[in-house]
Amino acid sequence: MGQKYMKAAVLTGPKQIQIKEVPVPAVGPGEIEIQVSACGVCGSDVHMWKSGKGWAEFDGDFWMGHEFCGVVTNPGNSNFKKGDRVVFWANLYCGKCDMCQAGQEQLCREVNGTNYIGFVCNGAYAEYYVGRASNAYLLPDTVSDTAASLMDPLMVAYHAIRRSGMKLHDKVLVAGSGIIGQMLGELAKKAGASYVAMYKISDVKTQRAREIGIFDEYFDGNDPQREKGLKEASGGGFDIVFEAVGDASALAACIDGVRPGGKIVMIGNSVEPEISFAMNRAVLQEITLLGSVSCTRKEFEETIDLIAGGLIDPEKYVTEVLPLEGLQHALERQIAPEDPMVKFVVKPNGG
Ligand SMILES: [Zn+2]
Ligand SMILES: [Zn+2]
What we know:
By secondary structure, the chain is α/β, with parallel strands linked by helices. Helices cover 27% and strands 25% of the residues. The structure holds zinc ion (2 copies).
C-alpha cells in the first residue's frame, strides 16, 4: 500500500497559513486515525499563529487544531470501529502521576498547562488526524459535528462553574464577552443563578449574547462609577465573579463587583507573566480567589452529556463554518478589534 496524502493547514511563519499536501501519519500502537469532521478555532491558536510556531520544536511541518471530532477510518488496535464518530480531548495527560491518579488530569504534572494536541504535536487542521485512542470519546448521534467542535470552551466553562461552588439563587458576574464568558453566563443561569450580568469593555462581541438573551444586564468597563453600579445592581455585590479576560483591569473590575466573602474564579490566561491587584481588598473583604483550567477527564465526558441531554446547544455561538482554506481568514478576523465574531469552526472535509 502506498503512502496516503492529505491537505493540512500548515503554519509556515508568523501569521502565515499555507495549505499543503502532507503524508498521513502512520497509526502506531494505541493510536487511531480519523477523518476530521470539524475543528473549532481557538484564541490560543492565535498566539501560535502570531509567533509562527508551536509550543515544541518541530522537524517538519506543524499544523494546529485542538478542538475537534471526526469519523474513525483506522481503529488500530483500539476498541473503536471504523465509522465511529469520536471527539478528542486535547489534554495529553500521563495517567500515572499523583494528580492523574486523583482524577485531576487537568493538573497532570506532565501537562502543566502546555502539553496539548495541536500545541506540542500536530493537530486537526487537516483532512486526517492520527493520535492516541485514549483521548477519543464516542459521540452520541444527538451531538452534531459542529457542537462537538465547541466542547473545548464549554468544558472550560463547565469546570469553572463547578470550581465556583455556585448555589441556587446566587448572583453571578462574568467579566469578558468572548465565547467562554458567554457560555459561563448560560451555564450559570441554567444552574440556578438568580441574576447574571456581564462586564465588558466593548460591545463588539455582545451582539450574539444579546440575541441569545441569557444575560440580565451588561456593565460598561469605561464607566467611572463602575463599582457603585455593580454593587447597586447586585444588592451589595455578586456572590460569584468569573474573570474570563486575563488582564489587570478585568481582575480589578471583579474585585469591584464581588460581595464581601464572595468568590472570584480566574479563567483568563494573562499575556503578562505577572499582574498586580488590590490585595488588601481581597484580604480585608475575605474574597476567595480561585484558578480554573480546562477540566477533568470525567468532566470532559460529562460535557458531552450536557450537549446530548439538551442542557445547552453550543452551535448558536458559531459565527461561521469554513473550509480548511478559510483558516487564515478566520485567524485574521479573530484579531480584528471591530469584528463581532464569536466562534469559527473549520470543516476540513466539507459538510
Ligand atoms: Zn481551545
Ligand atoms: Zn499525570
